[in-house]
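Give me the fold.
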Amino acid sequence: MKITGRSAEAIFDSIREGIGDGQLAAGSMLPPVRELAERLGVNRNTVAAAYKRLDGAGLASTGGRRGTVVRGPAQAMAREGSAPGLALHDLAGGNPDPRQLPALRVQAAAPRLYGTDTVDVRMQRLARASLDPHCPAGYALELTHGAVDGIERLLAAWLLPGDRIAIEDPCFLGSLNVLAAGGHGVLPVAVDAHGMQVEALRAALEAGARAVLLTPRAHNPTGASLDAKRARALRQLLAAYPQVAVLIDDHYALLSQQPYHSVLPDDGRRWALLRSLSKALGPDLRLAWLGCDAATASVLRLRLAAGTGWVSHLLQDAASAVLESAPQRAKITAAGERYQQRLQSLQELLRARGLQTPLPMEGLNLWLPLPGDSHAQVLALAARGWHVRGGEVFAVAAPAHGVRITCAALATAQLRQLADDLLAVCGG
């Protein structure tokens, strides 16, 4: 392709069009800055500025002397959920058991108009009852349209395109999609049965991470939760990097059977604690509580005001009505206990058949590690009527060989049959 232009903007547009129409394929090298500048008869700084803009837009990656590589247009990535009308028994979607979800009814106490406080008084009371024990004094309370929306808004507030963030490896699909869309670089941090590994996070911080995103409980896909010792070690490590923002995605909070252990140092840094209501009240309820520092809250309010404005008070009313009801709260508590019982039952059935899974584990899913690529096992389980999620889609750097099995809605007989089938397919 012939690149044209006499200004940085014109050169950027020329390359952008070439990427869009397929003349510049992903992975192809752009000419060196000096060479293209001489060809176009412009200053090298003009070409360098165009390349920098391409990098910021996520269309190319600049690697100094290694050159500039075309990334190409954004590709569709794996998402939670499964296609409707699936003939197989769906164990891949990551969904809660519909039978365990409370009935949501939207009934507004009174019409809300422009200028109304963005967080309803009832919702403030409920959110603070959850967040107060785990947030520094004087924190700000905000709402977002679910955890993934909160992650996207926070990273946009904290980071510039190309800034690097330390994330768990393997990582939640929603987080991976947000990072890809935002053009953020990732620094993978290995996970074990107790969450983020301390030395792996240290390496990411030393490599220049400007933020950390971690899951304290029910890590997706592995089910790991931080214990007190690991959280303390991570907190001590982060204290040495006060310039690094900390984002905690406590997505399973309302259902968790594990205690919450904070990794936040007491230093007034940029931080946020997200608690989604989706797992407990239903994925379609796009609502999450967010506690954060005051400076972060100010930026988030500006971004909300320019876009969606606020989280609907009708959603807040529906969630508040459930969370203020003692019988409904009891149902949520019972649901968390049932999910844990089903997960542990499947683990015990697998161990009895010689298949080991990481311990401890919590959440809607069971993680079964495999020695190699999961493709053959996924197909073999499909032939037996089960649709499971291959682990490779969760990988950041290290191979995530395994299968993630959403077992939240399985009955006892189904758990036994699944264990037999997993032994037949994965036991060799």
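The chain has 14 helices and 15 strands.
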